[in-house]
Design goal:
Elements (H helix, E strand, L loop, with lengths): L1 E6 L11 H8 L4 E6 L12 E2 L9 E2 L1 H16 L12 E11 L2 H7 L4 E5 L8 H7 L4 E6 L9 H12 L32 E2 L2 E2 L9 H19 L1 H6 L7 H9 L2 E3 L4 E3 L2
Parallel strand pairs: 1-2, 1-6, 5-6, 5-7
Antiparallel strand pairs: 3-4, 8-9, 10-11
Helix pairs in contact: 2-4, 6-8
Length: about 270
């Protein structure tokens, strides 16, 4: 997978050289490139912003530097001088509080792409015409980390690149570790423990020491349901009930939930 990130603070993305993502870059699993937007300006002050039309506070990022930067990375992804076509055009992700919320399902979807480009906006955002222009050669997707506002897109890009990159085959050493994570099946992950079995008068649940893998799997599933009900009941409301076993339904009933034909509903 090729990933390009355009920012006015390229040094902000230095963390992508660390941990599993950094190792994946070294191993050639991720071709990750960070570009300074100011390198695509033409004036001696390397200006990337100007005042907004219509008035208002703040500054807006200028269109031409972004068009030059995005055009350059789009061509780099397909070969020198080659204009991306409908089959090869990259996905352009624009971090924005006005975008679709980033989810684990979206991370899995994006991990299947060959070329991702991230546009890190700042100030009041990027001139809207850039997105209109980019739609001719990119699959443009404004994406939000959540219902809050950051100073710029760099923090969001760090989070998204890690979430997406770790799903690329070979990046995580044991792919089975991805299967039972929070949100992988619509529920939160069960609690985990390691040695010693007793620590400061707190003991690991006996079931995990039993060696009975069937009962351990059942206990973990019940813990997923309990944790999701306690911390993220909204996930239960959207959960696909066709995935529930009889044991799951019994566990939910003991927690005060009713499973209907198509929904999980709290009783009372």
């Amino acid at each position: 997978m090729r990933i390009d990130v355009v920012s006015i603070f390229p040094e902000y993305l230095a963390a992508l050289d660390l941990s599993l993502i950094g190792k994946a870059r070294q191993d050639g699993l991720l071709d990750l490139n960070v570009h300074d937007l100011r390198d695509f300006t033409t004036d001696r002050h390397r200006t990337v912003d100007d005042t907004p039309y219509g008035g208002g506070a703040g500054m807006v990022m200028k269109a031409e530097p972004w068009a030059q930067a995005l055009g350059s990375v789009a061509e780099a992804g397909t070969g020198d001088g080659v204009t991306p076509d409908a089959e090869t055009r990259p996905v352009l992700i624009v971090p924005s509080p006005a975008g679709a919320v980033f989810t684990q399902a979206m991370a899995y979807e994006l991990a299947e792409e060959k070329h991702l480009v991230f546009a890190c906006g700042r100030y009041e955002g990027i001139d809207e015409r850039v997105l209109e222009w980019a739609d001719e050669r990119f699959d443009v997707r404004p994406v939000s980390l959540g219902d809050y506002v950051l100073n710029g897109g760099e923090v969001a890009v760090l989070a998204m690149v890690e979430a997406i990159g770790r799903l690329v085959p070979g990046v995580v050493g044991n792919p089975e570790s991805l299967v039972e994570e929070s949100h992988s099946d619509g529920l939160l992950e069960y609690p985990v423990y390691t040695k010693p079995s007793s620590w400061r008068d707190r003991n690991v649940p006996d079931i995990l020491l039993s060696g009975n893998h069937g009962k351990i799997a059942q206990w973990r599933r019940e813990q997923q349901l309990q944790r999701t009900a306690a911390r993220r009941p909204d996930l239960l409301e959207k959960f696909d009930v066709s995935q529930l076993t009889k044991a799951d339904k019994a566990a939910l009933a003991s927690m005060g939930y009713e499973v209907t034909k198509d929904r999980i509903l709290p009783l009372g």
